[in-house]
Amino acid sequence: MSSLKPFPQDFLWGAASAANQCEGAWNVEGKGVSISDVMTSGTHKSPRRITPTIDESKYFYPSHEAVDFYHRYKEDIALCAEMGFKIFRMSINWTRIFPQGNETVPNEAGLAFYDKVFAELKKYNIEPLVTIYHNENPFCLTGLCNGWQDRRCIDYYMNFCQVLFERYKDVVKYWIPFNEINCLTTKLGNWNHAGILHPGTEFFTDQVDEPSARFAALHHQFVASARAVKLGKSINPNFRFGTMICHITVYPLTCDPEDILLTQQEDMLRNCFSGDVQVKGIYPYYIRRYFERNGISFEITQQDLQDIKEGTVDFYSFSYYMSNCITGQKNAAQVSGNVMGGAKNPYLKATEWDWQIDPKGLRYTLNRVYDRYQVPIMVTENGLGARDVVEDGKIHDDYRIDYLRQHIEQMRLAIDDGVDLIGYTPWSTMDLVSVSTGEMAKRYGFIYVDRDDAGNGTQNRLKKDSFYWYQKVISSNGENL
């Protein structure tokens, strides 16, 4: 690949994390209960339960201790520096700063923790990429107003942003207002992405859905994102904001025109809609017609539309793990995946958790996104969830290296195609609690964490083979794969 256009010299190599999946310390130093804190553990075949009342005598809640980044952040950031990170994607847990979500005075102990994290990153010249909201909605707001379906959450969120932007105006440059905001186009997005809990919902993967309430929540997050951009740039004009899309790349299963049309409709709803609002600043024609056809109705004010127009983001970031196929065939074989499944692609292999592996799909996606938006792009999640085995104090995760290598090769090809790709933060820095299943066994990290699905283990860190491989990738700026 040496004849190809190289990665930019200032390319932002790093990896990602999320507070609710790594921090633990769920109720210390004033932190309130987040929606993640009331989710039990589960498996691929046994869904996570949402328990409005926490009962630790009956259930195990993996986020309560997670992998203890709260107490081990210095060790973890030092390992990031050893790998050569230029950037570290992280999130700030809303309930550390505002325990209930609607207070007016922040919790100083929570802010002090992030002061220390940012100081440690600065010590190693690692740029923070901060996701403001990464599935850490205050649980109190679920009871108060059923989460983001209520417009009041915009103001609560803006108060949170005001504190963060003022406190870290000279520390953080890159901000993502909402993680995988487009997940609210799916039924599964109600809880994790909006804190909505309708009566009758018990399990994360089987939620009661009211589409008008769900799309109202998404709209409120669009407005909040736009207002955050405007507020942030009034505080520091050098701030850079990005959308973060869970990109579910879809192909037609066959060349039947019906499959082509279904695929186009799925892509526009799941992937394009949120990007069009946040990057272009418009509500696209096709979504308005979708609302009409499906009886979806909620309040959209002229001020909302004006804010959305004025508060567009500077870069486009997205998660990419896999692709799916779409078909009208009722008997087509199915696979699961991130947020939604689809028809099985006969040309692809899948993981133990039934996620299809499609490196070339990343190049395809990068080109489609850049063609549509013409703004800088970051790939802010990409990785392989797999079982790792410790052998003589080592972890030989060639399968993870192979997955990442193939995807980085396709990124390089996309850059050679002309795509303005500026950063890569694969999932994940260290092993984390899986959102979809609550497991630790489904490991993604470059750094192994000694903790099992029942919460047993020392929490000690161990460098995997992929740690040393990625170290060489970064030091060679993507030349040594």
Automatic annotation (TrEMBL):
For this protein, the record's InterPro entries field holds:
GH, GH_1_N_CS, Glyco_hydro_1
Q: Which UniProt keywords apply?
A: Glycosidase, Hydrolase
Q: Which Gene3D superfamilies does the UniProt record give?
A: Glycosidases
Tagged with keyword Iron = no
Is Transmembrane helix given among the entry's keywords?
no
Q: Which GO terms describe its cellular component?
A: cytosol
Task: Spell out the molecular function terms from Gene Ontology.
Answer: beta-glucosidase activity
Give the top-rank taxon of the lineage listed in the UniProt record for this protein: Bacteria
Q: Which GO terms describe its biological process?
A: carbohydrate catabolic process
| Family of this protein | Belongs to the glycosyl hydrolase 1 family.
Protein name from the UniProt record: Family 1 glycosylhydrolase
Biological source species: Candidatus Faecousia excrementigallinarum
